[in-house]
Structures are given as structure tokens and as C-alpha cells.
Amino acid sequence: MAIATRSLRSGTSHVALPTVTAGRFLSAIVFAAAWTIDGSANAQVYPLRPITWLVGYSVGGPSDTIARILAERMKVSLGQPIVIENVNGAAGSIAVGRAARAAPDGYTIALGDGSTFVSNAAMYKLPYDVVDDFEPISMLPYAPQIIVAKSTVPAKNLSELLAWIKTSHSNVSYGTSGVGSPSYVSAMLLQNMTGTKFQLVSYRGAGQIMTDIISGHIDLSIAAPTVVLEQWRAGKVRAFAVTGKARISAAPDIPTVDEAGLPGFYTSLWWGLWVPRGAPDYVIAKLNAAVVESLADPLVQERFAEQGLDMPTREQQRPEALRAFQKAEIEKWWPIIKAASTKTQ
Q1: Given 260, 284, 319, which residue is the final one in a domain?
Q2: Could you say which of 1, 228, 252, 256 would form a disulfide bridge with 146 (CB–CB 3.0 to 4.6 Å)?
Q3: What Rg value do the Cα atoms of the chain yield, rounded?
Q4: Range 49-71 average pLDDT
């Protein structure tokens, strides 16, 4: 395209400048204004319709509980309902895979954990990348797990429980939420650290595991406080130890693994929110602000505390902090998980 020029003389120099007509100048202004208005307008009106949260576990499990507590408060900040969809299967990887394929418009969000966004990638050949195919929104509450067994198990403490497992050989049954789930990884580590062996029974979620422990259909598991504490308080199950360095405030009578005779057996649970890669910055910022506001709500904090969950700090709630934490967890756990998988095969 030919560009007309005019001359500008200053001494002996000659510079050719493009001729800008009034029409082209006005068009450029309109284009720039439209781009700016479109971006700011989208940021102001998002979301325009309900948001879908994909949870990779069944109703009643810890992920589902966290999602429903948080979604109830976040809909106030966002002005739109949040629809929880429980998509079970493959330790949550089916739900995350669906999120990875979704449009990056902020209307499909994955609520993930250390299983779906760390350990699954060490155990499965996934059709998505747990880091590169997602944008982090915020870290959510976290907690240690609890070693729990049926109320009729012949053990009064953790040492006696481990001794009973050893003498019972492979007759002891242990419930997991599927290969790669926190309960599964914890089982592998427990067997390797203690030299015990037990049968792994897969379930769709922690809620179903707890139901079968209460009924006596299986013997034990390692699960989140969200599914253990209510049943433990009611005397329906026995809680032997917290898999962290400190007791939890919601159940101060349950000793830590260090105190109970299994030092260093630390297996924590954590959760976060992600959107598909390519989501606009204004979507991430809007969602992050809604999470931050919700986690600062005293009622929300109280409800999470009742579940034995700890709140992330304000610094940990930044998207960048969740990204850094996830990568650190991958570096820490992938070698352990792969080594444990090899030993138990």
C-alpha cells in the first residue's frame, strides 16, 4: 500500500513522514477506544451467567464440602450462582481433563487438590499438563489427614493398630478414592514405612469410604478431617493419629503421628482453584478477589475451622503463590510416588 508523504525541513536534513488523513486518525482513535472499552467492559460485567465448578470426587467428600462452603459465599461476590458438578473417576482426573478442554472464559473452573494437580501426573499418562494447561486462581484451605478405623478394630492406639495389621497379614482392608488419590498415596507410604500389607479397596470418594468403615465392611483408611471428625465425635469410628506435626484445633484429643509412634509420617491435604489456560487476566483477577473476600468472611472461617481445615495466608491466596506451591509439591512428591509405586507393584 502506497503511503503519501510530506517533507519536513530543518537545516539540511529531510525527513519523510506519513500523511495522516482526518478519517484515518479518527478511525485509529475509535479502534483504540473500542479495544479499551471492550476490555474494561468485560471486566466489569463478568460473570454474566452461572459458573460451573468441576469437582473430581463424590458428594460428601472433602473436596465437595470445601467447594460448597466456598461457592455459597463467592456467589455473593460474583453476583451469579456457582453450580457444583461432581465428576467422579480416575482419582479426579476425568473432571480436570474436562476443565482442560473447556473454553477459557471463566465459566468452567476446576477445584483441584494434591491428587489431581500433582500425584496423578506421576502415576497416569494424562491427556493434559497439570501445570501448563491451567491458570491458578488461589490456594484454598488445607489440612493434615487422620488415620481412622472401624470402631470394632482390636486396637486402642496407633502402635496396636499397626501390630494388628501385621499379624492379620493381607486380611485387612483399606479404602481409597482411587489410584493417585491422597488416601492411595498415603497407603503406599504407610506400607513402605511400616512394612505392613493390606488390601486396597477403591471407592468413588471419601464419603463412601467412611460409610463402609462405619458399617464394618472395610477396616481402615487415611482421610480428611472433613469426613472423619463428625463420625469420630459420634463414636462411630476410631481416630488414631493426625498425619501432621501439630494437633488440629477441631480435635485436640487426637495425637499426631509423632506422638503416636510413627514419626515423620506427614501427609497433608490441600486444595486450589484453576481455570483453563488462556483465561483473560480480568477473569482471574475477578475470581481471585471473590476467593479472597470469601475466605476473609468470619462465618466461612468458622465453618472451615469446624471441619479441621486451616486457612491459607493472604500471601498464599495469590495466583502466583499457588503456582509456586504446586511446582514445589511436584518436585517433592513425584520421586516418592514413583518409587513407592515401583515397590508395591
Answers
A1: 260
A2: 228
A3: 26
A4: 93
